[in-house]
Amino acid sequence: MFGRRKKQAAAPFDRGGRVPVIRSSICTGEQTAGFKDPVSGRFEEMMLLRDDGDFQEFLRRYQVEASEIRREW
After folding, report:
1. Number of folded domains in the chain?
2. Phi and psi for 61 in degrees, rounded to 5?
3. pLDDT tens-digit profile of 34-43?
């Protein structure tokens, strides 16, 4: 009940259909990582990035290279 959270398994994503994106708020600086469908423009949020550790966790969990990620404001 009050134990540690279980680590979530990596949810595979379709590299041909979705693009890894980090959305940043201009006002608050809040950053969210997820995947965007380039055809429909729909963004699927995966996790909140509070620090560099969260960013590294996103890269590791979804097997994404840092060079593949686009930033949006």
Report:
1. 1
2. -65, -40
3. 999 999 999 9
Query: What percent of the chain has a predicted confidence (pLDDT) above 70?
Result: 79
Q: Assess contact for 69 and 18: CB atoms under 8 A.
A: no
Which residue is it, tokens 């729909």? 42
Residue 1 lies in a domain: no
57's enclosing H/E stretch is helix 52-61
Nearest to 35 by CA among 9, 6, 61: 61
Look at residues 3, 8, 5 and name the one whose alpha carbon lies nearest to residue 57: 8
- Domain of 26 in residue numbering reads as 19-72
